[in-house]
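Researcher: Sequence recovery benchmark, item below. Answer with residues only.
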């Protein structure tokens, strides 16, 4: 019984100190958007998205403009010590009536953690380039807001400027440590673009972006954990000596 009581006594100080060592991971601002820009006789553009950060966010955006339809689904959970973002997107970029469209899904998230944070980002983007003179790009990044330091910076691009129409997959991975108190800009972007006005062609692509941010325990919290373990070992040793083991 004394062992159970002492276990509780040892753990309580750790529980008391841990919340103060956690990072506030709620973004200071964000823009999660889908959009189409067209250049040509029917030139114009339209976009839609979300701008108010929320700790639990489950929604979607769908936009149809000209011959293009873009959708994005968001599943985001932000806790005191970790955050998880999942974005799924589908892009049908259509070239109609000689317009030259650029279709994109993107997000920009600003966060300033109060302790060090480990960030991991992954993205898989399946795409098709069914016509000559097309480009496609994918990017994930986490950078200091003044752009002087990159914690994650991964990107890929393809085109049919110098190669025939084809399909492909981008598979991006990146991770890094964001220091406490650093205003950080986190971005993802997928875009498809026609470079000519060849009509009645649609380029289909699908993509996912997964990101986690996890607070790194402060040295004080780690020290408490080590101290509690040492106290428990000593207490058990004393009990064993008294019982003659």
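Model:
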């Amino acid at each position: 019984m004394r062992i159970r009581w002492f276990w509780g006594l040892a753990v309580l100080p750790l529980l008391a100190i841990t919340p103060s060592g956690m990072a506030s991971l709620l973004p200071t601002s964000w823009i999660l958007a889908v959009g189409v820009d067209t250049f040509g006789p029917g030139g114009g553009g339209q976009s839609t998205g979300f701008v108010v950060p929320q700790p639990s966010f489950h929604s979607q955006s769908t936009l149809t403009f000209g011959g293009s339809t873009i959708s994005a689904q968001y599943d985001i959970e932000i806790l005191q010590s970790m955050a998880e973002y999942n974005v799924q997107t589908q892009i049908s970029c259509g070239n109609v009536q000689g317009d030259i469209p650029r279709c994109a899904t993107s997000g920009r998230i600003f966060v300033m953690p109060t302790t060090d944070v480990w960030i991991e980002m992954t993205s898989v983007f399946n795409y098709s380039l069914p016509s000559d003179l097309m480009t496609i790009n994918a990017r994930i990044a986490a950078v200091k807001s003044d752009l002087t330091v990159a914690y994650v910076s991964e990107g890929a691009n393809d085109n049919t400027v110098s190669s025939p129409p084809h399909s492909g997959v981008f598979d991006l991975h990146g991770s890094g440590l964001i220091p406490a108190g650093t205003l950080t800009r986190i971005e993802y972007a997928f875009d498809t673009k026609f470079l000519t006005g060849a009509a009645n062609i649609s380029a289909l692509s699908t993509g996912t972006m997964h990101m986690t941010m996890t607070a790194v325990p402060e040295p004080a919290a780690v020290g408490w954990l080590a101290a509690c373990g040492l106290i428990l070992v000593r207490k058990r040793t004393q009990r064993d000596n008294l019982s003659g083991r």
